[in-house]
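note to self: dont lose this again. the chain is below, predicted strucutre after it. 274 aa total, dont forget to put it in the shared folder this time
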Amino acid sequence: MLTQRVWAVYWSATGTTERVVRTVAAGIAKRLCCSCESRDFTLPQSRETTMEFGPGDLVVFGTPTYAGRVPNVLVPFLTEKVRGAGALAVPVVLYGNRNYDDSLMELRNILEEDGFHTIAAGAFIGEHSFSRTLAAGRPDAADLAVAETLAKETARKAAALENFPSQPVPVQGQWPLRPYYTPRDRAGNPVDIRKVKPVVGEACDGCGLCARLCPMGSIDPKDVRNYTGICIKCGACIKNCPKGARTITDERYLYHKTELELGYARRAEPELFL
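---
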């Protein structure tokens, strides 16, 4: 089958998913000698229009893992406004060193239902959105080398296809999908941080970068201390603030963050599915 164009399509609040997806897509395009384009659907306005693909397209499609699943705030866009129409796809998820649980299977299934044919997949590690020490600096050079391997094997597989695959690419996960991961304290009690939001310190100079970067459009650009919607703890406003003025001080959040950093300090490794 002839691949005419490769796409890097991603939601990436802090740039980790973007780096992996772009690496894979560029590597495939280079090997198949075709063009490579990108679609970033991180910001709210980018999710207002439909994304349409078709035969001849190969789409590397990436999202982060939130609580072991595809972020639930993205599911309406992914199921209603993304159309594969026979395009090939490579689902990719990133997770913050704990586990990707069922996120890759969920993303693969969504893409298949959207009309894509999945031919390869990967789960990669990125610095956790809550932390600067958990999987710090990842994806790193070793991770991107694995991404290049995924590109090479995907290109080889795509070039050899004569017909659309009859089955989705096999991936790790459980079906039916498990519930979203729930943080718990050491006594087993749930730790609910869903309504927790960052606070703004005196260092803030009101530049408005956080409002421009918020994937939910939840920070008031006229008063960046004011929230107009939900916070999904993606880290975009905290990690990108040039003054380091935004932080989360909620004790439940800090407890969960510390437990993650202590419990998952080992180096998790990417997994590929071909």
